[in-house]
């Protein structure tokens, strides 16, 4: 792995690679997510998440701001 950060555009059920790379960064934990393992993201916020745990954390943060 080259360890280059990718830039993606997230859509429902898919993403488009805008800049080639090997990974993206989790918006909550900051962990690197290899593109081959990327399963969780938010289309509206255009954020990637490492696991369901980070998805829940982001949801709780957004819910508390309402």
Lay out the secondary structure.
Elements: E1 7-11, E2 14-19, E3 23-25, E4 32-34, E5 40-42, E6 47-49, H1 52-64
Antiparallel strand pairs: 1-2, 3-4, 5-6
In a nutshell, what does this entry contain?
The protein is 20% helix and 35% strand. By secondary structure, it is an alpha+beta fold. The relative contact order is 0.20.
Cα distance spanning the termini: 41 Å
Biggest β-sheet description: 2 strands, antiparallel
Mean pLDDT: 95
Uncertain ranges: none
Strand order of the largest sheet: 1-2
The assigned structural class equals alpha+beta
Helical coverage, percent range: 10-25%
Q: Radius of gyration over alpha carbons?
A: 12 Å
What count of domains describes the coordinates?
1
Detailed description of the structure:
The protein is of the alpha+beta class and 66 residues long. It has one domain (7-64). 20% of the residues lie in helices and 35% in strands. It is built from one helix and six strands; from the N terminus they run ββββββα. The longest helix is centred in the last third of the chain and has 13 residues, at 52-64.
